[in-house]
Amino acid sequence: xxxxxxxxxxxxxxxxxxxxxxxxxxxxxxxxxxxxxxxxxxxxxxxxxxxxxxxxxxxxxxxxxxxxxxxxxxxxxxxxxxxxxxxxxxxxxxxxxxxxxxxxxxxxxxxxxxxxxxxxxxxxxxxxxxxxxxxxxxxxxxxxxxxxxxxxxxxxxxxxxxxxxxxxxxxxxxxxxxxxxxxxxxxxxxxxxxxxxxxxxxxxxxxxxxxxxxxxxxxxxxxxxxxxxxxxxxxxxxxxxxxxxxxxxxxxxxxxxxxxxxxxxxxxxxxxxxxxxxxxxxxxxxxxxxxxxxxxxxxxxxxxxxxxxxxxxxxxxxxxxxxxxxxxxxxxxxxxxxxxxxxxxxxxxxxxxxxxxxxxxxxxxxxxxxxxxxxxxxx
Length: 379
Ligand code: SF4
What we know:
With 379 residues, the chain is of the alpha/beta class. The protein contains 13 helices and 17 strands. It has a 9-stranded mixed beta sheet, sandwiched between helices. It has a 3-stranded antiparallel beta sheet with strand order 12-13-14, with no helix packed on it. A hairpin with a 3-residue loop joins strand 16 and strand 17 (360-363). Helix 1 (32-51) runs parallel beside helix 2, helix 2 (75-88) packs parallel to helix 3 and helix 5 (174-187) runs parallel beside helix 7. It is globular and about 55 Å long. It binds iron/sulfur cluster. Iron/sulfur cluster (SF4) binds at residues 16, 19-20, 23, 25, 27, 67-69, 102, 125. Iron/sulfur cluster binds next to loops.
């Protein structure tokens, strides 16, 4: 009998108080009337999927409230959503339940409501620990907010806390990045995600760079910053397990792992993208249309693609290569081990971007630097 595929649930909460200058996610400014129209629609979507047997009774291993900024929604409403999910889906006993939060959007009382409701992990968007670096990226709030939120989350009972930071920010130097990393370590999180700033078309930051009011990221400086993060965080007791992610022992993010180990994930909310049983499908990226469709008891799916066996293996390889341990040999499908992809793999190995052994295939340190290029080559 084939092993059951692992599965997680993601909820896209499409609200923020304001849009950061670099952000290209689908989101709306979190006005009360929008939130009030969204929540019943999301509950309806949970009900509709709960009635279906799409997941075949498999228990959820992870639930992730992402966005946007989920904590723009009152904590007791997030708690009600989580209770509804538990009522509609089976879950594993030690399920990981994450909520993303902007540090300035949570109070000690909110955090206590979340831990009491069963949230086990919180992820704060710190972005930097140097406030001057917030200005060109339009990130609201203060550095003190991050320290205060960390202390409050710990006091509320969260033991699994992630901090997101970015490198290559306008005006950021190697020295200020190193200071940010050391400040993060002093806050004692269990997980740190370091993302290279990328410039997304149509964002205010792209516009500011085009008219030269803000400098573009410097590729070679970003490479040095990536290397500094590896050195400082590893020395600080973290293990790098994915290109952008570091965890203390026992705190690897299960939700992230589902994406990189060819597992299934059902995603709810406007613009959310799912992958279940070899089919990729995405919700409509429009709040009003999302609410309208669910008002008619119709799932708001706007696109659906069934992958061929070859495409499934190819995607599993591309995503799996993000993990430092790479892709084990038994996961490299027979379609990839021959024909065009065999030649592409051999070329990437010859270029020093991939290394292959008895255990499987993985990116080299050079390959990690050019992971997007490797993915494009394999696609
Ligand atoms: S808080 Fe996060 S999701 Fe919201 S606008 Fe800023 S980067 Fe985008």
